[in-house]
Amino acid sequence: RAKVAVEAYDDRIDPVGACVGMKGFRIHGIVRELRNENIDVINFTNNTSLYIQRALSPARINSITIKEEESRAEVFLNPEEVSLAIGKGGANIKLASMLTGYNIEVFRDIDEVDEEDIYLDEFRDEIDGWVIDQLKKIGCSTAKNVLQTSRERLIKEADLEESTVDEILTILRFEFEDEDEETEVVENAENVDGIEDNDDIDDIEKTEDFDVVEENDDK
Description:
about 220 residues, alpha/beta, GMP Synthetase, Chain A, domain 3, 3-stranded mixed beta sheet, two-stranded parallel ribbon, elongated
C-alpha cells in the first residue's frame, strides 16, 4: 500500500482528480503495473492538522494536537474510528507518519473516563517506555484499553513480540486483581461490622428483657 500527496500549481486543476482519472482509469493502470498495490492519493496542504487528517483517511478525526518541537501529533477519534486510522497491521498510520513527517499517536476520544482505569504512563516502572509508546500509537492509552484489545491485534498492530504482550497483560491484569481483592476485603469488613452491630443490639435487647424479668420477680 502507498500514500501519495499531490499539489497543483494551477488553481483550475484538481490534482487528485488528474492523478486518479475519470472513473479511476489512470490510477488503475498504475495499480495493475504495481501488482495491485493500493494507492491513496490526497491533496497536499501546508496546514499541518489538515494534512495529517487527510493522511489518516478514511478515518474521521475529532481533534489533533500538534507538538512541533517533537514532530509529534496526538490524534483523537471516536472508538469506532481507531481501527480505520491504524489500518490493517498498522499500515495506514505508518504511511501517514512517513508522508507527513510526524510521529502520529492515536487516542480514543471518550466523554467519560472510567475512574477505575489507569493511564499506561503510570506503569513506566514496570513496562518500558517505548512499549507504552507503541501501544499508544494503536489507541491504547489506558490499562483497560489494552485489556479490551485482542492479544493478536496487540502483537500485529503494535509490532510487539508475543512474550512482551503476554508480560504486559500479566502486569495489567494483576493490577486490577489487586483492586478487586481490596474491594472484597472492605466489603467483608463492613459485613463483619454489621454482624457485630447486630450482636450488640441483640445483647442490649436480652439485657432489657432480663431487667423486666427481675422487676416482675420483685413484684
